[in-house]
Amino acid sequence: MTISPSIGQVFNPWGPPPNDKEIEANLFRRIAQHFSAEVALGYGSTRYRQNLDEYQIYSNGSNLYLLGEDSLGNSVGIGNWLNRPFLTDTLDTASAIWYQNTLNESDQNRSYVIDSLEKRLVGGGNAIPIHLKLHFNYDRYRIGAGATFEINSKANLQLKGFPDYVANYESDFKRFYTRKFYLTAGVRYYDFWDFSYFADIEYGNFRLSESAFPGGQVSTNNYWNISLPIEKNFSEYFRLVMRPSLDLKSINTTLPTGQSIKTNLWNLQFQVGVRVSFPLFKKCPISNCEAQKEHRHIDKKFRGQPIYKWQNPKVGENDPYNMNEKREAFPFLKRK
């Protein structure tokens, strides 16, 4: 029996269509692939700093007050001046000891008036920030916008360089919230293996909890943030982000005496999160397809790996290990 060859069209899942036309992503995907979203959670340490050189300070062992005059010229004390200042006329300044840096007394129960010397009120608190950023990425550069929400702890402040028997300042709130909205820009300045190194800057405004920092008494300024994020590239669409950053911001508190005090708020943060880009091609719908690269099926192009794996390893589809596995720290320990 003679078998004659027949010509038939056989489905080739790896090849282009018969007319071999070029297959590219649509316009929407070509634009969307330049956008990415980042979400991260972390920890921050806030440092407060005030210059109080122009004020006399009264310490009664457990509380600090600024000394001033009310509208009638009476001597008063100003308490809680960080966020919700109030006046009191019950301070006994006549019997207080005028503090000298050579003073030998250390009675916690005595009252002191501090008039001379450099007076810097410094201290800190903790913060838990979470942020969402949207970037437009082009080559090594990116621009975007974002929002950050922070939970902040109470503030504990001390007069820098003064002994323990001078009272500390403790805020009247246990916690407060910060909301930040900003524009951001950055550049990728270095790549090493599957790590990318960026320098980012933010500029925007922030708002504090009205319950802790009433808007009628406390005003905020625009702020800057400088960060040096490091990104671990699991694929061209999925990255682990480690972001150390420094916030530079300040507030102004209006006192009942008509004066105002500026407080610098420096916040050092470290956040960990992920950044995800919009993929150029859809995931291959064929469940048993083993292609690791971008590839064609008839008239469409697909990516060969999930969004969290490297899509374009420099190996053939038949290589038993994709690039993501080849980038392990100790590949020789992997069981074959």
Output mean pLDDT. 82
Please identify the top-level CATH class of the largest domain: Mainly Beta
DSSP summary, beta strand count: 20
Estimate nothing, just give the exact number of structural domains.
Answer: 3
> What fraction, in percent, of the residue positions are helical?
under 10%
Q: What is the CATH topology classification name of the largest domain?
A: Porin
SS-derived structural category = mainly beta
Tell me the overall shape: elongated
- Report the total helices: 2
Query: Largest sheet, described in full?
Result: 12 strands, antiparallel
Q: What share of the residues does DSSP label as strand, in percent?
A: over 45%
Can you name the CATH architecture of the largest domain? Beta Barrel
Low-confidence stretches: 1-12, 315-320, 322-330
* Alpha carbon gyration radius: 31 Å
Gap between N and C termini, in Å? Answer: 48 Å
Order of helices and strands: HEEEEEEEEEEEEEEEEEEEEH
Structure description:
- The chain has 336 residues and is an all-beta fold.
- The chain folds into 3 domains: 12-33 and 281-336, no CATH class; 36-51 and 118-277, Porin, CATH 2.40.160; 56-114, no CATH class.
- Helices cover 3% and strands 49% of the residues.
- The two termini are 48 Å apart.
